[in-house]
Specification:
By secondary structure, this protein is mostly helical. Helix content is 85%, strand content 0%. Keywords: Cell inner membrane, Cell membrane, Membrane, Protein transport, Translocation, Transmembrane, Transmembrane helix, Transport.
């Protein structure tokens, strides 16, 4: 039972974020996810086109 009591004591020390902090962090994560997706999509498109040009220039 000592283990359970220690868990309760540690749980009481946790500082939970408030609703505004969670909302702010969620918006940041979503925005960064979209930005990274767009960046990787554009990079993939450019790399694909360059590779196609390279292959076609060698008669592929």
């Amino acid at each position: 039972m000592k283990f359970i009591e220690e868990i309760k004591m540690e749980y009481a020390k946790v500082t939970w974020p408030n609703k505004e902090e969670v909302k702010h962090a969620t918006i940041i994560v979503a925005a960064m996810s979209v930005a990274l997706s767009v960046y990787l999509g554009v990079f993939d498109l450019i790399a694909s086109r360059l590779l196609d040009m390279l292959v076609s220039s060698f008669g592929g």
